TrEMBL record:
Organism in which the protein naturally occurs: Deinococcus arboris
One Pfam family cited in the UniProt record for this chain: McrBC
Domain of life of the source: Bacteria
PANTHER family given in the database record: PROTEIN MCRC, TYPE IV METHYL-DIRECTED RESTRICTION ENZYME ECOKMCRBC
Descriptive protein name: Restriction endonuclease
Classification lineage: Bacteria, Thermotogati, Deinococcota, Deinococci, Deinococcales
Amino acid sequence: MTYIIAREYDLLVRGAAPAVAGVHALPPESFDALRVFLQTPIEGNKGQEEVIARPTLRGNQPALRLQQWVGVIRTPDGTTVELLPKTHERDGEADGEAVTRSRSLLLRMLTVAGDNYRAALPADLDPARMPLFEVVLRYGLEILRAAIRRGVPHAYQKVREERAGLRGRLDMPRQLRQPPHRAHLLHVSYDEFLPDRPETRLVRLAIERIARMTARSDSRRLASELLHALADVPASRDVRRDFTRWKLERGYIHFTPALDICRLILNELNPLTAGTASRVTAVLFDMNRVYETYVAHLLRRQNPDWQIETQVKGRHLGSFTSRLSNKRRPIFALRPDLTIYPPGQPVIIADTKWKQLRTDRSFPHGINNADVYQMLSYSAAFQHEMGHRELWLIYPHLPGLPDNFPEIELPEHRYLKVVTVKLHQELPALYPQLSPA
């Protein structure tokens, strides 16, 4: 089976290709399966439809240019493509070390961005050195194990059977029809407290599927232990119906995290975005969204008294009068990444940019004009108070960039600050200095 480790914006080529950095050759069957999946529109960070890869050519060969999505894709023939962040390694770092650091960074950010990855792996496992596909499966098993250890949900089930002794209620209509040679047996009905319910059936099926998909013996062993704990539970035969009937009582709330894992494994959907079912198994994350969530987490952790909202909706840049209804209608919706309310300070609008600044240029290091125009639009819609108005653009830090940047003065007392996050640190410091109001 083919296993490829690629980065954001790398090129996937159909058929043979020379060994060039950032170019990855795929067998024709695998490429064709991926092409359909990767060009299916899905919802991106700002609500617009995006694709995971864009079609292009490399010479005369069909190719796909990856976008800002990371994760794991697996085709029906077993070809696996692991997509890692294009993190900013130091010059001279060995490729294996770079892969480990990129994988470690992604897992650290996902721990914040998604509940599915908050389970702790055993101490003897280093997820940064495991294939990402195996990491996803193992995290799923660990979360399911934690749920099962706290108690398997049970429910009363109506049982009807024929037995030698009386239990529950005698089923008189059936008993009256009992033939003489079976008159010594009783038809009874009673309620029994059993673990056979929609939630446990889905969990069992998810564990069975993980056991088939994983290539690690320790993960298969763990799956076997969990299946033994669910020995009295049959696997779901109607996944869609059981998902609609998923309803946990108060005593079984600890089983709630299992729902996302079951959806991930059984529906093969993207856990953070609106994915689509496909013959291709995929777990994909939009790095724009992951980075935004990670930055919001850092700000909340370091400033617990701040109120921080993400992706605030309901504001528009303009409006127009409809000819049909003669009413004013908003147009050009705005959705800033972060809306920050420091105590006693005017609101701050911030946007996270998963982009590389240019270390080979002087300030403003290649900041896109469109990003600044966007911040002015946000300010017009969200910062109505007069006086000092603060805007932040937050980028990943690169070696060669200064720790502090000059403040950019914009029209009408608006000030733009450029902030960078040192992602290589375990807990990056993110302390922009507030300007006096």
